[in-house]
Amino acid sequence: MTQQMPLLARYAESLFWMARYMERLENLARLIDVTQTFESPGLENEAWDSLVRIYADESHYAETCGAIEPDVVKRYYLLERSNPNSIVSSIEAARVNARMLRPLISTEMWKHLNVFHRDLLQIADHELQGDNLSRLCSRIKEAVQAHTGITEGTLFRDQGWHFYEIGRLIERADQTTRLLDIKFHRMLPKGPEDRRLEERTQWGGVLRAVAGYHAFRRIAPVEFQPSDVVAFLLTDPCFPRSVLLCLSQTEWHLTQLRTSYGLRGTLTPLEQIEDMRAALLDRSAEQIISIGLHDFLDGMQRDLIGLAAATGDAFFRDWKPNLKQNQSQSQSSAQL
Amino acid sequence: MNAEVVKISEDLFLDCVPGLYVSELATDRPGDNGAAQIVRNRLSAIGLDGLRARAKAAENDLMSLGVTFTVYSDATAIDRILPFDCIPRIITAAEWRKLETGVQQRVAAINAFLHDIYHDRKILRDGIVPAELVLGNANYRPEMENFPVRFGTYVHICGIDIIRDQFGDFRVLEDNARTPSGVSYVVENRHLMRRAFPDLLAGMSLMPVDDYGRRLREALTEIAPEGVDDPQVVLLSPGIYNSAYFEHVFLAREMGVPLVEGQDLVVEDDRVFMKTTAGLRAVHSIYRRLGDDFLDPTVFRPESMLGVPGLIRAWRKGNVALANAVGTGVADDKAVYAYMPRIIKYYLDQDPILANVETNICREAEGLAYTLANLDKLVTKPVGESGGYGITIGPRATKEELEASRAALIANPSNWISQPVIGLSTCPTLTDEGIRERHLDLRPFAVTGRSTWVLPGGLSRVALKAGSLIVNSSQGGGSKDTWVLAEESRR
Fold it and tell me: What superkingdom does the record give (chain A) (predicted)?
C-alpha cells in the first residue's frame, strides 16, 4: 500500500470526466482539421456530412441546423452550445469538473484550464474561415497538450491520477475508432483505380491527424495498403493513440488501483479489457475490413462505453452513463 | 525607519484630506514607526501609471486563478473578482492588541450567552435580555436545548465587523456568528501584494496571515468527539454553484481536508461517513458552510438537497462535531447586538474592550423617547431585517419619511433600534481621479476550539464610490490588504 489517503468517489468521477472532456476536445480539433483536408472541390458537403455521422449527431444536427453545409457543421462542432459534443460544450464540462476538483488538482492545472476556457468562449467567427480554421485547430490541440504536460508535471500521483488517466485513455481509444471510421466513410463507395493515389493521400491525412504519419512510415511498407493503416491505429503496441496501447495502459492503471490502493471492483473492467484485446488481435486487419470495419468499430465503441460503465459502477457513486451535471444553483447563508 | 530616501516626482497623496474622518494612511499615527510615511513615499515613487498597470495585472491574475465569486442572473453565471485595491491599510501593533483582545472578549461572551440560553437561561431570568427576544427569534433552535458542545464553544468561526469612528475609536458594527465568509481574501490579498508589490513590502515587518488553515484545522480536531485518535475533518460546501465556493476550496486546501458536498456524506447507525472509492470512511468533524436550515432535511427544511439526512441525530449522539454549532444565529441578531455590552458585563464581569456603536433600544422607554426626540439625527433600523431594508437615515430623510418612521416606531417599538450616523474612517484608495479617501471597515476572523485565536488583521472592505458608507461586495465594495505592524516594527 503506497497511500492510505481516501479519495472521494465524486472526485474520482470528476477526474475521470475532466480528462475525458479534455481528450475529446483535442481529438475533435484533430478531426475537424482532417475533415477540412478531405474536402474535394464540388464535394465539400460530403466530408462534413461524415463528421456528423461519425458522432451519430444526424438527428440533433438536422433539428438545430438543418441541411449539411460546411460552415454550419464547423460552427456546430466548435461553437454550438446545444451540441453536447462541441468544443465549447466540452471545455465547459471540463471546467465544471475542474472546479469541483480545485481542492485536489494543482493551481497550475486549474489556472491553465480556466484561461483556456475563457479563450475558447471568445472564438470569433472569422477564425472558422478558410485557412484560419487549421490554425484554430492547432491552437486548441496545443492548449490541451499544455494541459496534459502540466498534469504530468504537477498532479499528485495518488489514486486520483489513475482515474484521470483511465478517463483519458478510454476517450482516446474511442476517438481513434471514430477517426478511422470517418476515413472509412469516405472510402465508400469504392473508388476507381485512378483514385488510389488520392486514397493514399487521404490515409496520410488520417495518420497526420493523429501525429502518426512518421512513425507509420518507419514501420510500414512503402506501398502500404489501407489495412496497414487500420492495423497501425488499432493494434500497434507502441503508437500512443492505438486502441490496443490505450487498453493496455488502462489495464495497468486498474491493476495499480487494486495492488497499490487495495481497491476492489477491478475484476469486471479487467475482464472486459481482456475480451476487447482478444477481439482486436484474433483477426487480421484485412479480415476485419472484409467483415466490415464500420461494424467492428461500432462494436469497439460500445465495448468502451461498457468499460467506462463498469469502472463507474465499481468506484463512483451513483454511476449513470452520460451523467448530466447538476446545474441547480445553491445559495447558503454566506455572510459577506 | 524614517530615513528612507525615495525619489518622488509627484506626491500622490495631496488630495487625501482626512477632513471629518480618520484616515488610515494619509496621516501618521502614534506607534506606526514611520510606516505610513514610507508606504506613501513608495507609492508616490511608483507613480499613478505604475500603480494602475500593476493593479490591472493583479486583477487579471485573480481572474485567471479563479479567485472569484459567482453572480447569477437569469440564465448566465458571471465570475467576478472582489475588486482589489492595491493601497494597503495599516494597523499598528498597539491597535491590534486592543482589537485582538476585544474580539476574544466578544467571542467569549457570545459563547457564554449561547450556552446559557440553551441551558439555564439565567440571563433571561435575571431580566438582562428580554426572553421573547431570544425565544421568539427565528434563529433560536429548540434542538440545541440542553445539548452539550465541547469546551462550551458554539461559535468556532466568528467574523466581527468593526469600524473606526470620527474620534479614532474602534467600534463593533455587527457580529457574524453563523457562516462568516471573506477570510480567503485576507490571505489571497497578501499573496497578491507579495507578487505585485515586492518593493512596497520590502523590509516591512508584518504579522503573517498564513496560519489560518492550520489554526482552523487544529480547532476542528480539538472539537472532534472524545476518544477518536486521528479525527477525519471535512469541509461541507453547498457546491460549485455557491457564490463563496472559492473560499470553500481555499479553506479545504489550506487545512488539507476533503471538500465534501451533502451527497458525499451518508449517516448509518447515527454515524457520519463519506463515500470514497474504497467505500465508506468515518467523518468526525465537519466545518459546514451551509446554513442551519439546509443541514438536515429530516430536521429542518425537508426540500433541501444540500444537506445530509440524519446529520443532526448523529451530532446529538455525540458522534460528529459541527462547526459552527446549530442555532448560533440568535447571537448575531441585530436586536441582541444592542444588548451585547450588557451580555459581556453579565458573563465576564468586564467592560467591553470594543464598544458597540451607541444603540438606543426602542423596546425600552428611555431609548424610544430619545429616538423620537432625535429622529432627524439618527439612523433607525428594524431589528428583523437585513441587507439595509427599512432603514431611515435621519439627516438625509424627507419630512414625510421621518413622520412615517415615527409612526412605525410608535406602532411597534420593539421592532426598532436607533444609532447615531457614524463617520467611518477612510483610507487612500486608487480611483479614476487619482488616489482619494474612501470609507472602509474591518472584519477580523476568530477561530475557537479550546481557546480563541484571531487572525492578525482581517478583511478590510472599502466602498469604492466617493462618499459611500456601504462596503458590501454586492454593492460595489472592494477589499484591501490589511497590514498589522509587528511589535518591533523595523525595516
Answer: Bacteria
